[in-house]
Amino acid sequence: MKTFQNIFIPVVVCCMFIFFACNDTSVLGPNEIGGETNLELTKVGGEFVANFYSETWNPGFDHQKDTAITTKNDNGVINIHVRSGFDSVFINMIDSLLGTKDLPKDIKSAMVDKYLKKYGVTIDTNNKAKMHAEFDLKMKVTSEGIQEYMTSGGDMSKPYTIIKYSANVGDKYEFTDPDGVKITRTVVSKSTTDDYYMGFWLIKVLKIEQTKEDPIIDKITYITNHKYGLVGVILQTKNGQVFRLGIFTHN
Known about the structure:
The structure is a single chain. By secondary structure, the chain is mainly β. The protein has 3 helices and 15 strands. It is globular, with a radius of gyration of 17 Å. The chain starts with 7 loop residues before the first helix and ends with a strand. The strands form 2 sheets. Strands 1, 2, 3, 4, 5, 6, 7, 8, 9, 12, 13, 14 and 15 form a 13-stranded antiparallel sheet that branches. A two-stranded antiparallel ribbon has the order 10-11. The longest helix has 15 residues, at 105-119. The protein has helices at residues 8-16, 88-98, 105-119; strands at residues 47-54, 64-74, 77-86, 122-124, 131-142, 145-148, 160-164, 172-176, 182-190, 196-198, 201-203, 206-211, 217-225, 229-237, 242-250.
């Protein structure tokens, strides 16, 4: 199939595996998607691989590895088990890059706990050389677009649209999460030629910018393709750091 002790880890975990996989959707509401659900992208057993890096390379990125495997497909609603492995070197690097290293430990712990609880992330830090975080991500993935249920706290009656492939620049998907925070996702570009590198290949993509009130993240940009789904994520932090996630298929 196609692709944390530290404040930033649960944020990354919750954002980095929002991935995946065109028909007129005019009969559907703004937050609904139809289309074919039996896709190569959504086959059970499919695995995603992600490369996480920043604008300036740091060897600490070699101390983190992510895997994600599709474990269920129920008429396009898929379950993906995500596991992120890392060590104290990676944690310290992220803490330094974000400028959160000197924050009081109790404040950081409270923020981490909030993210872990909100997104259902479990974390094992017993072995500082082999720590890991895990969670199950539910998404709806069809030939017409991508939706996720994480932002709604797992409420299956409230899918949050990431993209409809028929969208045009300027289209918006707006929601209010369970905490009462407004989330806006805006289509900011749509390729007319193959202009985005996915590995060694050039493909057409749509880019969607997400904005919401958050103490760490300023903006998230999702990069999607109608065939390969979510192929990249860009995280821009409040202190000006830019982190990129490249998502690849691994069969």
